[in-house]
Automatic annotation (TrEMBL):
It catalyses: an acyl-CoA + a 1,2-diacyl-sn-glycerol = a triacyl-sn-glycerol + CoA. Residues 305-449 form the O-acyltransferase WSD1 C-terminal domain. Its EC number is 2.3.1.20. The keyword RNA-binding does not apply. The keyword Amino-acid biosynthesis does not apply. The lineage of its organism: Bacteria, Pseudomonadati, Pseudomonadota, Gammaproteobacteria, Pseudomonadales. It comes from Marinobacter confluentis. This is diacylglycerol O-acyltransferase.
């Protein structure tokens, strides 16, 4: 039995029919060269034999003295969680994305462990897919990515590899896997920030500086300046998922020519896509959109602990020039990072929690809808840097599937894999019609930057 942290409880409180609170991932694999046509069915039989379920997948919700706790599910039904399914013909990526869109719309049964693993056959070109979803109270996006990476190998000849629910248990002391989850920072204020009283002076000083600058400078992005937008309306429970890969070498060439980071460039791509999408609906606000973005503040090459802050970044969507928009984003992100330069990691966490307090209040209560802190979520989760394999099948692409919420109808999450940047967009089907067109607009945004920089 394990008590849920206040942060994890927030994800349960937030969940409702139109607002499922699970994160997910879609992975594409290619058959081994010598594999028979029924390879995926053989793999399904192998996976059904993996009945040893390890943490955190053996846990279901329980209650003790009226408080939610994690308890071991003594009657875990693996057939409920592992599902072998086939796409309808002709088995294109379009059918796969439609499948994920539908499945990601469904709430999970709280009487069972809160995860599902879908093995999907029927794709063209001797490929198959895996779609996994896990409730955010159980893991966040970064820890889910790390679990998935543990399932993979860099050795194409390795076999008998376990699925994600049956990975060997790890000893304690491997460090915090919570990672830079944006929702955890929002929830932190509501659950735990009162414990760090020693951070109050620095946090208060930084927060007052933010408020004072916001009052004097209308171009400064803070809790007061996110414009009203169709992205921030009420949503339904139906989702649209769109995903695509983009060449990392092209993005790095733009970085080199403009003295920017990969994160700056992908944010500029997102800004361009949002600008085009909203202009086509005659719904682009005059003021620039604001994104909530986690950024790394690490100053060394260490791997332990969390050195991540969340910034509210202006996307420069009021600017028509692609290069000018990229420079605008770079300077805005740079100023936000400088604000954190003299703060400890705990002070940064509490500062961002307080800065996002209006968003947290809105998400939990639905009150004060005019407190629009940001318009969209843009998150970058690092992925494998080398080609990866699972039981001899090569991983061709991996796409994050995140969370859309009331007043945050679009989430743009991306991850890196080898020489690719993999975008996963999740949004409300009704609020954001034809969301898949944004994939073309992302490509157009990158092309516009290349042209503007003479590449």
């Amino acid at each position: 039995m394990k008590k849920l942290s206040p942060v994890d409880q927030v994800f349960l409180w937030l969940e409702k029919r139109q607002q499922p609170m699970h994160v997910g991932g879609l992975q594409l694999f290619s058959f081994p060269e010598d594999a028979p046509d029924n390879y995926v069915a053989q793999l399904a039989d192998q996976l059904r034999s993996q009945t040893a379920v390890t943490a955190p997948f053996e846990r279901r919700l329980g209650s003790r003295f009226g408080q939610p706790v994690w308890v071991d599910d003594e009657h875990l039904d693996l057939e409920h969680h592992f599902r072998f399914e086939a796409l309808p013909t002709p088995g294109r990526i379009r059918e796969l994305l439609a499948f994920v869109s539908a499945e990601h719309s469904h709430l999970m049964d709280r009487e069972r462990p809160l995860w599902e693993f879908h093995l999907i056959e029927g794709l063209k070109d001797r490929q198959f897919a895996v779609y996994t979803k896990v409730h955010h109270s159980l893991v966040d996006g970064v820890s889910a990515m790390r679990l998935f990476q543990r399932m993979l190998s860099t050795d194409p000849d390795e076999r008998n590899m376990p699925p994600i629910w049956s990975l060997p248990r790890r000893s304690r002391g491997h460090g915090d896997d919570s990672g830079p989850s944006m929702w955890r920072n929002v929830a932190h204020l509501l659950g735990e920030s009162g414990k760090q009283l020693g951070t109050v002076p620095a946090v208060t000083k930084a927060l007052l500086s933010t408020v004072n600058r916001a009052r004097k400078d209308p171009a400064y992005d803070s809790i007061f300046h996110a414009p009203r937008c169709v992205l921030n309306g009420k949503i339904t429970g139906s989702r649209r998922f769109a995903a695509q890969s983009y060449c990392l070498k092209r993005i790095k060439a733009v970085c080199k020519a403009s003295d920017t980071t990969v994160n700056d460039v992908v944010m500029a791509m997102c800004a361009s896509a949002l600008r085009t999408y909203l202009m086509n609906q005659d719904a682009l606000p005059e003021k620039p959109l604001v994104a909530m973005v986690p950024v790394s503040l690490r100053k060394d090459d260490s791997s332990e602990g969390n050195q991540v802050g969340i910034i509210l970044a202006s996307l420069g969507t009021h600017l028509n020039d692609a290069a000018g928009r990229l420079n605008y984003i770079r300077e805005d992100v740079k100023a936000s990072k400088e604000r954190y330069a003299s703060m400890s990691s705990e002070e940064i966490l509490n500062y961002t929690s307080l800065l996002l307090a209006p968003a947290g209040f809105n998400l939990l209560t639905g009150l004060a809808p005019k407190w629009q802190t940001f318009n969209v979520v843009i998150s970058n989760v690092p992925g494998p840097k080398e080609p990866s394999y699972w039981n001899g099948t090569r991983l061709e692409g991996m796409y994050p599937v995140s969370i859309a919420m009331d007043r945050i109808a679009l989430n743009m999450t991306l991850t890196s894999y080898c020489d690719q940047i993999e975008f996963g967009l999740i949004g409300c089907r009704r609020t954001l019609p034809s969301l898949q067109r944004m994939l073309d607009y992302l490509e157009d945004g990158l092309t516009d930057l290349e042209k503007a920089l003479g590449l």
